[in-house]
Amino acid sequence: MVESADATAPTADADPDYRAAVVDLLAVIAYGEITAFERLAEDAKLAPSLADKLDLAQMASIEIAKVERLHERLRAFGVDPFEAMAPFRAPIDEFHGHTAPADWYEGLVKAYVGDGLANDFYREIAAYLDADTRELVVASMEAGTHSAFVVERVRAGIAEDHRLGGRLALWGRRLMGEALTQAQRVAADRDELSALLAGGVDRPGLDLAALGRMFTRLTERHMERMTELGLEA
Amino acid sequence: MVESADATAPTADADPDYRAAVVDLLAVIAYGEITAFERLAEDAKLAPSLADKLDLAQMASIEIAKVERLHERLRAFGVDPFEAMAPFRAPIDEFHGHTAPADWYEGLVKAYVGDGLANDFYREIAAYLDADTRELVVASMEAGTHSAFVVERVRAGIAEDHRLGGRLALWGRRLMGEALTQAQRVAADRDELSALLAGGVDRPGLDLAALGRMFTRLTERHMERMTELGLEA
């Protein structure tokens, strides 16, 4: 999939629409990392032990370390990174505003589900990008080192208190719903980015049927992650 | 100074008192970094722009990145890093509890004054350490890249609102007072660490008169930093 798309992928230099889409993509990822830092740093305060707090602080630092490379690429395009991120502040801030974790476990599930969704989306879009951009996007994906940490903590919490499982299952559904709502809002506002995914003229994107299948895959993987956490999806 | 002390510096393997002092030193630095992360991440929320927020988030990440090496060394001594940090949690948490910044500027001054004091102290103690430990302690010092950022922001703030200068000058004195109070508490509780600084048997530390001169130097440098910020010390 990656190879076949690569042969026809436009470069960001050649095609202004593709370039606008890439600028949007890098900017939304960068702003996502900044808010992930904030969210994880905030969750660290809820940590039941200093070791847990340090783990979350380290996760937060990994997110922020990725921002600089994305901003450098935006600057190389002659774009101010903060202007590029501006259109994505409201939808991403609203996502976080509507999904503020009430406790340590909700924070863990949000980090796990949110990173998982973001990584799945990056993987889906990567095939439609030129090699340079794809490399940057893939580098923004989680190393996955903290997945085991979250799964272990959440499963242990549910083992101790079975009601927690029911509450977190509802929480996971709410996270997915809010994420889709805000993603839809971004798609409606950002034509070039949407066109890249949906398959505009001369772009090797998805058609609308394929877009539907992509959302189905994202939803399925979300449900798999909920199951890994020991939660009903 | 560094060379002459080095010739007689004991190694952490040979001398149990020196080893206890080094364990305390690495642990207090590590816990200091963790709380510096928390403080900077919290201050990032007060940032007047997204660019300022990102700068603070990056400073926070630099602090947390240093913790792992300190913890590794503690583990190499057969010490649990979280047990080693435990005695320093109350004094450092109290320092932060008593000096919670009320706004963006107080946060900036606290970061600048706090990092400056910590670096001066590390520089003072470095001469009495074996080469391996000294290298770790020196690596924990700030790269100093964000000093210019803070000085520029604080000076611009004072230029806009002169009353700010008076308030921040008082704030700087309070920070120094709280830091000395908690440092004294640590010194009273941790005999080996104090002995390393004050010059116990077989240790190339300072005598009490030299300790007094060290505090004078720390205070002088604090006043220099306040002046750099455009504040009366």
Q: Would you give an account of this structure?
A:
The structure is a homodimer of 233-residue chains. Chain A has 233 residues and is an all-alpha fold. Chain A has a single domain (13-228), classed as Ferritin. In chain A, 80% of the residues lie in helices and 0% in strands. Chain A has helices spanning 2-8, 16-44, 50-76, 81-98, 104-126, 131-139, 145-160, 162-189, 191-198, 208-228. The two termini of chain A are 29 Å apart. The relative contact order of chain A is 0.14. At the A-B interface, helix 2, helix 3 and helix 4 of A face helix 2, helix 3 and helix 4 of B.
Brief summary:
Two copies of one chain form a homodimer. Chain A has 233 residues and is mainly α.
Number of strands of chain A: 0
- The residue fraction in helices of chain A comes out at over 70%
Coarse structural class of chain A: mainly alpha
Order of helices and strands of chain A: HHHHHHHHHH
Detail the poorly predicted runs of chain A: 1-8
Mind telling me the C-alpha Rg of chain A?
A: 18 Å
CATH superfamily of chain A, by name, is Ferritin, core subunit, four-helix bundle
Report the CATH C-level class of chain A: Mainly Alpha
Oligomer: homodimer
Task: State which percent range the strand residues of chain A make up.
Answer: under 5%
Which architecture of chain A does the CATH hierarchy give at level 2? Up-down Bundle
Number of domains of chain A: 1
Most strands sheet of chain A: none
Q: N-to-C terminal Cα separation of chain A, in Å?
A: 29 Å
Count of alpha/pi helices of chain A = 10
Fill in the CATH topology of chain A.
Ferritin
